Amino acid sequence: MENSIDSKINTGRDGVTQIGNNLRADAHAAIDKVADKVPPTTDRLANSAHNGVDKVADGVNKVADTMESTSGRLVARGKQVGESYKALAESGRGRVRAHPAMSVLLAAAAGYGLSKLLSSRGAK
Fold first, then answer.
1. Which domain holds residue 84?
2. Of 2, 41, 68, 99, whose CB neighbour count within 10 A is largest?
3. Residues 6+ apart with CB under 8 A from 10
4. What is the pLDDT of residues 61-84, one digit of tens each?
């Protein structure tokens, strides 16, 4: 499951990066095409447009990097939660094995309390 999440996150990040690269290339090509047809005095405007495209592309790359670092933290946190759950479950099993009568009494008391709680809600 973790590999599936990782692969989906990586696919999303790669898609964002690819879109950014494609947009950058397309925008530069369009700017160059227009600049070739306009007098040389517009070089300054073309350079400004190129700088703007580069800033947007850099922003897209930052988003992709953020997605990658966030996905890494989420995967690590998921592993920690899974390990904690396993440790807690094993601890619970050990207590039940050590004190089976107490475990049965606790389960019966919890069941009785839940039944009273739920039955009193249904009566109102």
1. 2-99
2. 68
3. 68, 71
4. 888 888 888 888 998 999 999 999
